[in-house]
Amino acid sequence: MKLTDEQKHQNRVDRALGTLKKYQISTARQKVLEKFQKMIRAEAAVKHMHLAPPGHRYEGQYLVPCCTSGQWLPWGGENLVDAGHFVSRQHTAICFDERNCHPQAKAENNHPDQLPVAARYREYMVMFHGQDVIDELEVAKTTVRQWTHYELAELAVEYEDRFNAAAKKLA
Description:
The protein is mostly helical. It is built from six helices and four strands, in the order H-H-E-E-E-E-H-H-H-H.
């Protein structure tokens, strides 16, 4: 008997759940955040693949602009680029909010509270999302979100699918 797409999806969620249940929620959330951030970088590379300066590729990888410096960096170059959060990812209610996460040079993401970096990220947010989104994120960060292993497993499968779709376009 052939499985439906819904059944296949549920099987993948169940497998992810089995893996994530081996960890405490905070560790499981961190594992899913890694998938989320990888997806953010890959989708940004797809979005910008035709906007990068001509001939600018790094070891065959498409480039993404850093949200705070404007520097073009290889999307998969984890030693050079992170997916930085405007409002810290420690705030569980917004850690997976895509409006809050953008490709960012690792050096800048490691010092997000330094005034020039924070000010430039705020300028980026205002330009691309508007002050209303900033206000929503600032309010939402005060909410405590208790994630379940099942919710995290669903997100893990979604982010993996989206990453794979973006990676296929970049191949």
